[in-house]
Amino acid sequence: MRNPPEITVVMPVFNTEAYVDRAVGSVLCQTFENFELLLINDGSTDGSLLRLERWAKVDARVHVFSQANQGLSGARNTGIAHARGDFIYFMDSDDLIKKDTLHTCLECCKSNQLDFVFFDAEVFEDGVQNSVLVEKFDYKRAHTESMILSGIETFANLLKHREFFSSACLLFINRKFLNKIGLLFENYIVHEDELFTSILFLEARKTSYISTSFFLRRLRAGSIMTVPYSMKNINSYFVVGTKLLGYTKENIKVKEIVDLYLKEMIDAAVWKAYSMPWKSRIYILTLCLKRWRKYVKIKTLFALLFKKYKES
């Protein structure tokens, strides 16, 4: 193996035996070869670990780490701790990337001395066959330009055009920058990318955009994207909101843009809660009135109370 690797790809794995071989294969067939692939077995109970170990035996760039289940954040943080590459990319174990992803992103970051570059994604169905969901998870930007700007400027532009997508799988990051700001994924919540990615933008000196769908996201039954909305979701969004407000206390200059983001994120989170049981909706309403009223529209609160949920 070439030493040291220029890129570290971190792939958490939890019970994705049916998909992980294709995910790993899409990394190993990259046109750029000097990388390491860290496979973080996060307490899988199916045959995932056996498949990971097989990959490690046939390709020296593959390294397997096993741990008790800590969730996506904990697995990614383990990857960060073991990463050696100059740049880092996070990828989920049921998704794919195009062959020139690593090469193109690396060249863009190095030639422009970027803290990170971001790009688009395509969604493909795997047994779900729900065109509404496919349209909902559209990760293609129509109004974002490939300009070199500060992260704050870029964040503001993305919010303006409603083209901010929080997925960490759409980011190719300079690891020195990541270590400098000391950013990790928040443990024990879902929607952890909402916090990680927003702070990444707020801290970045230089970033840019590549208008290519390098990332191929699988839409499948039982994934985070397709499971029913619950209190775990809404509580996680509130944790993200609380952490971001705490961040603004030490970084007052970004308060305005964080408020703008929270008005979009918290409002959308509360709107989706209309599908939850009545008791949960009343509880969420109480939380909104006590803490989040500034970030939730009146019509959203009415939807929370009166909108009827219809099974699709």
Please render the helix and strand layout as text.
Layout (H helix, E strand, L loop, with lengths): L6 E7 L6 H9 L6 E8 L5 H11 L3 E6 L3 H12 L4 E4 L5 E2 L3 H12 L3 E11 L4 H6 L14 H10 L10 E4 H7 L10 H12 L3 E14 L10 H20 L4 H18 L5 H15 L5 H9 L6
Parallel strand pairs: 1-2, 1-4, 2-3, 6-8
Antiparallel strand pairs: 4-7, 5-8, 6-7
What does this protein look like?
- This protein has 312 residues and is of the alpha/beta class.
- The chain contains 12 helices and 8 strands.
- It has helices at 20-28, 48-58, 71-82, 101-112, 131-136, 151-160, 175-181, 192-203, 231-250, 255-272, 278-292, 298-306, and strands spanning 7-13, 35-42, 62-67, 87-90, 96-97, 116-126, 171-174, 207-220.
- An 8-stranded mixed sheet has the order 3-2-1-4-7-6-8-5, sandwiched between helices.
- Helix 6 (151-160) packs across helix 10 (255-272), helix 9 (231-250) packs antiparallel against helix 10 (255-272) and helix 10 packs parallel to helix 12 (298-306).
- The radius of gyration is 20 Å and the shape is globular.
- The N and C termini lie far apart (50 Å).
Provide the helix percentage: 40-55%
The stretches of 5 or more residues where confidence is low (pLDDT under 50) are 130-134
Helix-strand makeup class? alpha/beta
N/C terminus separation: 50 Å
Number of strands: 8
Report strand %: 15-25%
Number of helices: 12
Instruction: Output the helix-strand order.
Output: EHEHEHEEHEHHEHHEHHHH
What is the residue-mean pLDDT, rounded to a whole number? 93
Q: Identify the strand order in the major beta sheet.
A: 3-2-1-4-7-6-8-5
Shape: globular
What's the gyration radius in Å?
20 Å
Largest sheet descriptor: 8 strands, mixed
